[in-house]
Amino acid sequence: MSEANWRKSSYSGAGDGNACIELAFMGRAVALRESDDPRTVLTTTPAKLGSLLRSIKAGELDHLAAVPEA
User: I need a labelling partner for 27 at 20 to 30 A (CA). Which of 7, 11, 42, 45 fits?
Assistant: First the structure.
């Protein structure tokens, strides 16, 4: 994966202390990694990544981050 051209989000600040998600195109797949742990890489298809991003933007996954009431 070291030969990949990793791209960092334009929303991430400059410097080493700004953890973010990076992605790279690997043939027909899209690879994703977290900048502060670049050894762990997930791969998916552009269509599945697009579906995930649309769901996130629509708020369809917000319940997964909700803190349960005590």
Answer: 11
